[in-house]
Amino acid sequence: MTRRSLLQASGAVALANQLAAADAPAEGRLKQSVSRWTYKNYSVDELCQHAVKIGLKGIDLVDSTDWPTIQKYGLTPSMTPGAGTIPHGFNRREHHDQLVQEMEANITKAAAAKVPNVITFSGNREGLPDAEGIENCVVGLNRCKRFAEEKGVTINMELLNSKVNHKDYQCDHTAWGVEVMKRVGSPRVKLLYDIYHMQIMEGDIVRTIRDNIAYLGHFHTGGVPGRHEIDQTQELNWRFVAQAIADLNFQGFIAHEFVPIAKDPIASLRQAYETCKV
Predict the structure, then answer these.
(1) Domains of the chain by residue range
(2) Are 107 and 67 in contact (CB under 8 A)?
(3) Which of 27, 39, 51, 67 is deepest in the core (most CB within 10 A)?
(4) Pairing relationship of beta strands 154-158 and 117-120 according to DSSP bridges
(5) What is the model's pLDDT at position 27?
(6) Which candidate, 180, 217, 221, 169, places its Cα nearest to that of 199?
(7) What is the CATH number of domain 29-276?
(8) Going by C-beta distance under 8 Å and a sequence separation of 6 or more, which residues neighbour residue 75?
(9) For residue 81, what is the enclosing H or E element?
């Protein structure tokens, strides 16, 4: 082969690569994942295979035992346990010693495995005034924030509805959670904004996200009513919501946490991915 023919061949290959890249489907600006528990009829291995084919980037709400399988497929365990449970969280100081110990142990594991997020909760009110619950959460999370910052792992306190699913849960309005985040003041302590839950509690989703994006570290999806597919049967315009999040240059994950009821759950997941691929 002459030098000229070699250059011509190289140019052809480069052009072919450029054309192939141009023809490849755009991935969209949001990193999407899927919650493990909503696809519990699939093994983790099976779910990962489907996720890769669809274009998802992670599997959400998984324990450390599943991390190797998920990472084998080039996916990220996008949310994993941090400390506490939904009814027992940082709003009571008598829980703090145990929660801090649990949090530091889980953050250490997450950091070692390059897992970016851990989840935590406010806990239920049980008669506790909201102002006192805020103060207690701030005290407890302040004990964790430096460790999270040093390890590069984000603690996410979840916003949940107390109207339908989690009676008496205290972090049930965005304003309550944001006040905690403002007082803690750490880039590694954020809110997990579950769109399903906040649509039930307060609505006004897009404006609320825009006003508070600095305090939001992670998103969950789920259709209202019923927490099923995010499609035309639900009351939100999910593509508009996804567009708003992407326009804010959000760099975290948006995880699909709807419970599929269609005959083909994987088709539902693919449709959700396409809806949020903006």
Answers:
(1) 29-276
(2) no
(3) 51
(4) parallel
(5) 80
(6) 221
(7) 3.20.20.150
(8) 33, 48, 51, 52, 56, 57, 58, 59
(9) strand 80-83
